[in-house]
Amino acid sequence: MTNANHATGEHHAQHKIVVTSPVARDVTLTRQYVCQIHSRRHIEVCALEGGYLKDIHVNEGQAVTKGQTMFHILPTIYEAKLDADMAEAQLAQVEFDNTKSLVQQNIVSTQELKLAEAKLAKAVANVKLAQAEMNFANIKAPFDGIVDRLHEQEGSLVEEGVMLTTMSDNSVMWVYFNVPESRYLEYQEAMNAGQNQDALDVQLRLANHKIFDQPGKIGAIEADFDSETGNIAFRADFPNPNGLLRHGQTGTVLINQVAKNAVVIPQRATFEILAKKYAFVIDVDDIVHQREIVIQNEKDDIFLISEGLQPGEKIVLEGILQVRDGEKVEYEYRDPDTVLGNLKYHAE
Fold first, then answer.
1. pTM of the predicted model, to two decimals?
2. Multidrug resistance protein MdtA-like alpha-helical hairpin domain: which residues (predicted)?
3. Given 92, 95, 185, 205, which is the most exposed site by the fewest CB atoms within 10 A?
4. How far is 73 from 53, CA to CA, in rounded Å?
């Protein structure tokens, strides 16, 4: 090591600086996104016909199974209509049988038989319609799920289409979060490069700051960007076997992705000029060189470098403000693993 002198010959004291090196290592990067939690299926349960709400067979918050009867609307009118239509169908059957017998005896024409057959078919169709309307009186669960708030009480006169309750299928939760365009492009580039989606570690942090015990996976990406925010909505799917998650909750999605063999340096080994990042690199002759670097990602107190530095090169860690481009310096070298293990501060 030697003293550094300016071209004018003016003598300066030696600069004692601390130097380390970039290293290549696997780094886990975590992206955080505020999210909204939704049930996979969340529907309104409505009255298919108007009438008096005679029976409510469920309670708020109750788990129900597919096909289970939830509400019963007074079916008196439906029963009377079904009885009348069944009587008409029986009468039409008798007329059809008599007409068929007369045709066989050549007493009436086949045209009369066709008319009787059509009348019978219409009567049978009316019976099926009345039976369907009778079935509307019993409102059943369309899937396994949880009953939400009841909007009507027993004895209420309800109109056709009025909402009786809502129902949620919470077996799998759909968690929506907005991703900036740059992160979306990173994700698509990784997928197009052959990265398995299962390699992404998708977690959910709840409002109590605890991590949900089931891992998630990216289930869908919306078709369009929001032109006002520049974001696009992602959906992560989380199994919910214990029913902890409910429709309408909020949380934070954490996406952990491993950057393989990333070139890593401490943030405080860099400085900025006109929105560009630089580091001081020391060559084999102990001469300092200012070099522009490109930051790929950052985490805590480290930068992941995509361009400008290679593992094993020497960079100034402490004393950045004391050195100048082209100077020859003496320094103290610190092992990069030790440096990275004791980081506390960001770049100067």
1. 0.69
2. 78-139
3. 185
4. 4
